[in-house]
Amino acid sequence: MEGRLPRVSGGNSLEGLDGATASADVSTSGDVWNGKGRRMASTVNPNHLHSQLAYMSELETAISAAADRYLVNVAGHVEANALFMDLKDGAAQRSGALSQRLQAIAGYVSASQASADLPPFAGWDLEQPAVAALHGMYLMMSGAIIGYSKLYTLALRFRDSSALAPEGTAWHLAGAHMNDCIQAIREINRIFPDVIVWELDRFGAECICTCPSCSSGICLCVTASGTVLRESGLVAESPGEPAIFVQRPRQGSAAADAGLERGDLVLKADAKTVNPPRELQVTIRDHAPGETVLLTVRRVSGYIEDVPIIRPAF
């Protein structure tokens, strides 16, 4: 019976996969005892728990492999590249921890039968491969969250939880790993609008919004999308100081003529903060066409300077 799990066949006997049976008593606590009064197992019919551990380990391996394959899609976007490196390493670590736990409680590590159900690699989007990569990874991480929710419940049901040990059980792993996946999805949501615009800019699909800021060449489409996601609690908080990240200004705009470039940060407009970003809209709108708006900008180099732009006629 090496590498094979016994199962409860009915009544109070354990039936091995080879058909052998042994007399056993099942206590109300869920422990299984043999006819000699020796404890045989800490759970009744733990196969569901073992199968889910195996499945989640396999899913995390697939996530790590997908993140590695997606790296080429996000090459050139610093935050997306760093995120996929973290996702690759994190998934590999979680897979290893799950395998170790399965080994500890089942005595062996076996591949699950769920391979065909794993989310497939999303493939290529010739125009926006980085967006496709984030989309594919979002779907896989969502699947992992559901899977860990199931593992969490099974671990409680079959007593591989804090009732058994203060740390390291399937219950502990499910909770910690689920949180990792939730944070990963929030980080994907945080950078997703920027990646969309970054790729659109790369093949010349410029912003045509007519709001005061976008018309001046400082696109707020990403900022507006991020605000909605943040207010919904779906994104991680943005690091750094409150500022407006400058996307590549549209050709011929006031921002382009003033020499602004992607990665610059607008800190103030006419000495007033731009937090929330609508304050920039208000400041520009308060000027007549042709008047100067003075922006305080932290350049990509880190140098802070005042940059005048001319409000266009809308």
CATH class of the largest domain: Mainly Alpha
CATH architectural label of the largest domain:
Up-down Bundle
Net shape: elongated
- Oligomer kind: single chain
Q: Count the helices. How many?
A: 8
Task: Please give the alpha-carbon distance between the first and last residues.
Answer: 79 Å
CATH topology of the largest domain: Ferritin
Let me know the number of strands. 10
Fourth CATH level, the homologous superfamily of the largest domain: Ferritin, core subunit, four-helix bundle
pLDDT averaged residue by residue: 82
The ordered string of helix (H) and strand (E) elements is: EEEEEHHHHHHEHEEHEE
Estimated share of beta-strand residues: 5-15%
Q: Going across the major beta sheet, what is the strand order?
A: 1-2-3-4-5
Give a structural overview.
The chain is of the alpha+beta class. The chain has 3 domains: 1-44, no CATH class; 46-198, Ferritin, core subunit, four-helix bundle (Ferritin, Up-down Bundle); 212-310, PDZ domain (Pdz3 Domain). It is 45% helix and 13% strand. The protein has 8 helices and 10 strands. The strands form 2 sheets. A 5-stranded antiparallel β-sheet has the order 1-2-3-4-5, with no helix packed on it. Residues 1-44 and 114-122 have low confidence and may be disordered.
